[in-house]
Design brief:
Elements (H helix, E strand, L loop, with lengths): L1 H14 L2 H19 L4 E3 L11 H9 L3 E8 L2 E7 L5 E3 L5 E3 L4 E2 L6 E4 L3 E2 L5 E2 L5 H6 L9 E6 L19 E4 L1
Parallel strand pairs: 1-2, 1-7, 7-10, 10-11
Antiparallel strand pairs: 2-3, 3-6, 4-5, 8-9
Length: 177
């Protein structure tokens, strides 16, 4: 069931018009602004394959003088590295840009983490690409030590029910446009 949802949503995401994609991304960023003022350390991701655009969000965070961290795959987990507009990025094996030659940051010091997703449901269950990188990484921390987890999505990514497994980590919120 999840593989069918995953394939359907990836295809929809890749076929969305540039105008709709931009509209959804800007709506989400606008709705997020009030939640970002009291935070300092924010983890995000580099959007690919029709994901909600994060470049505008990153620019906004820099204007607010926030510390921004992006993930890098190490073994089967993620490490987060400080990101600046001048940071050197290098594509990983999935062709997703990652920070190159930066210093990793302690995960439990991150206040908010924006998490990519392929689908979600009303209970904040998240379906990713299937590698389990976020679940394995966040599963290392006790719930009280985790950052606030926020998914960013297009409205069509909302599904009635995502089948979950015991190792899946739920999001705290999903902002969608």
């Amino acid at each position: 069931m999840n593989s069918v949802i995953r394939q359907k949503n990836i295809k929809k995401r890749q076929n969305i018009s540039k105008i709709c994609h931009t509209k959804h991304s800007h709506k989400i960023i606008s709705n997020l602004k009030k939640y970002l003022k009291k935070t300092k350390n924010i983890a995000s991701y580099y959007a690919v394959k029709g994901e909600i655009e994060t470049a505008t969000l990153h620019s906004y965070l820099f204007k607010l003088k926030k510390n921004l961290y992006l993930p890098k795959i190490k073994d089967d987990k993620l490490e987060f590295f400080k990101y600046k507009p001048s940071s050197v990025m290098k594509n990983n094996k999935y062709k997703i840009p990652e920070p190159y030659r930066e210093t990793s940051y302690l995960l439990k010091k991150i206040d908010i983490m924006f998490v990519p997703l392929v689908a979600f449901d009303t209970k904040c269950h998240r379906l990713g690409f299937g590698g389990g990188f976020y679940d394995k990484t966040l599963g290392q921390l006790q719930k009280k030590d985790r950052p606030i987890l926020i998914g960013l999505a297009h409205s069509f990514q909302l599904n009635k029910n995502i089948k979950t497994h015991k190792f899946d980590i739920d999001l705290d919120f999903v902002f969608y446009g």
